From TrEMBL:
The species this protein was found in: Candidatus Magasanikbacteria bacterium GW2011_GWE2_42_7
Superkingdom of the organism of origin: Bacteria
Gene3D superfamilies: Hypothetical protein af1432 (1.10.3210.10)
Protein's recorded name: HD/PDEase domain-containing protein
Amino acid sequence: MTFTRIQNVRALISQAETILMGSHDPLHDHRHAERVADYAVAIATELNITKASHIDALRLSAWWHDISRVMTEKPSFLLMPFIDDTLSAVILAWTALKSGKWNRTVWLASRLILAKSVGTGKLFARMFLTKRMRLLLDILQDADTVDTLASERTRIIRELVESSRAYHYAYRVMVWWFVSTAFLEVKTNAAKAQLMIVLQEFMVWVHQEKIMKWHTDRYGQEWIDYVHARLLFIMTQLERDLAFVRIHTVS
């Protein structure tokens, strides 16, 4: 039974990878899903989560959480964040049922994606997840957040901004939103450490002379200064949290 479950999970992950390779949204393609899966497993490992079915559910949910974005050639910047997780959860469940791959791991992964939904996620979490399972939800959400400004995405972002006026404005608004709200807040200490690394890499990238000029020419010095100040503030908060954890771990 366990072997069959593992086979089914692997098959569904492979299917998701194939589907996402055809995504029209390069920021939410198979590379993003793979990184989120890797982050999720790394965070879970740091938190001493060792149950195979839980690790598999995290990996499976990471691979399927953006699957609905392949349904349209032009995913909406405004609409998709509110519906993509809900649709993706339904698509995963339906695909598994239709192909005879349904099992408890798929059920858990579907619930994690559903509970990750913007707006309705908290309600779904209370309805479908036990308190113990909500830690897995935190891990999945944290992993997705960590990848927001991952260095692997920066080249893609530049290409998109260069080729599309919509992405030009979207990048400006999204980065402002990321640094101005609680968007980059993560719940687990393991994710805070991962996010710190990602933000440090992002700052190094932005401060390259060529990249800084690229940003300044398009968005202005005032925007650059604001984003820089906010990122420094976020990183300072992260460092304080991590230092607090280190002190209490030693003591």
